[in-house]
TrEMBL record:
Full protein name: Serine aminopeptidase S33 domain-containing protein
PANTHER family: PHOSPHOLIPASE-RELATED
Serine aminopeptidase S33 domain segment(s): 124-365
InterPro entries: AB_hydrolase_1 (IPR000073), AB_hydrolase_fold (IPR029058), Hydrolase_4 (IPR022742), MAG_DAG_Lipase (IPR051044)
Domain of life: Eukaryota
Pfam families registered for this protein in UniProt: Hydrolase_4
Amino acid sequence: MDLSLTFRSPSPFLLPKSKPSTLSIPLISLKPSPHRLTVAAAAGNMKMIEGVSDELNSIASQNLDYAAARRRVRSAFIPVHQQLDHLLFKMAPTGVRTEEWIERNSKGLEIFFRRWMPEPGVKIKGVVCFCHGYGDTCTFFFEGIARFIAASGYGVYAIDHPGFGLSEGLHGYIYSFDELADNVIEQYAKIKERPEVRGLPCFILGQSMGGAVTLKVHFKDPHGWDGIILVAPMCKIADDVTPSKPVLNFLTFLSKVMPTAKLVPQKDLAELMFRDPRKKKMAVYNVICYDDRVRLRTAVELLNATKEIEEQVDKVSSPLLILHGAADKVTDPVVSQFLYENASSKDKTLKLYEEGYHCILEGEPDDRILTVLNDIISWLDARC
């Protein structure tokens, strides 16, 4: 069975109160074969990536529901990523040591880890652990971000959330937002005990949906971190796009009946995420990101998570740095102002970047990206 819902709101998964959704029921398979790695049958369904070979386009068009396929696609595109004309790739500091590995979590899922360390001989000041945003991975744009931070004397660690990037789980599917947070706590508890960083100040960096994950982690483990950095965090839903209670109840019901079914997309968010048009074109090379329709249970979990966070922002007590583009239309900078004003942290900083869109670390002009990176590093240096 297949479900499609038409949403008319700035968010890819929110329903406005004033305009009820249109419900239609076409047909899709809810149980894709775990062995299906075939290219889309109809050429019109394939997303052709300019500047790469037909073979790579064929590889990128595989069904990415399962981690094995995502890992193969990412491996094939590594040389392409290294050639991209983007500040984060072409000017990333050299000498940074990198490592990646996979471990099973307590739920039995394979979790992908990546590490960036300063070059040999550089004293490590602290540890930065990363939580990526919805649909994303720690293996594309964050590669360059991590290198800049590591070159400044920090050990940087990242994981792909279950269901995203190179970790196991149905692609784009969040069964439980609490489980996402629990997995972050579990995995980074192990990182903190690694001999190269044991005893050092530890900070957690969350971007977009990863900011919501980070806040949930903080609520569950309020003394687990020496500081929190949030980049364009998803932590409150604007009132004018919050679904009405009947609509939310209906979505919740559907999410129990057909949790992995997908919603019809509202719009291409790339226009709202990247201010620099040249960098926006490069987003297509993030070939293992989840950019399909939002799955029903995922949408409900995101909605519920932001509601819970909104009700608890006064419990945010850790040293806090919030960074947000002032022109962001994906996550509202007014919400970051709300978080800043209501957090109980005695050490808190809010930086709003004029004209900045959602992806202030990836999609802005080069000078702005460097400004944001240096703001992060300066904040870390002042607390280590």
